[in-house]
Amino acid sequence: RFGQIEEAIQAGARMILLDNFTPDEVREAMESIRGRVLVEVSGGVRLDNVREYAQAGPDYIAVGALTHSAPAADISLEIE
Question: For the whole model, what pTM was predicted?
Fold first, then answer.
């Protein structure tokens, strides 16, 4: 996976998505990226571990729990 990062940068990518990386893997990837592109982290990020991901240094973090774990509301609209 790490080889693909350099390949994407060399191909002209301006942003890279690190999907399902652990915080340690994100940290390692960020060291090799060295600010050359923007980085988003997604997959495996939860509200209880988002700080650990943030400390790894990405530019953006996507937390799926904000949408797929939100409580549903049963609402209907009846028009006569």
Answer: 0.80
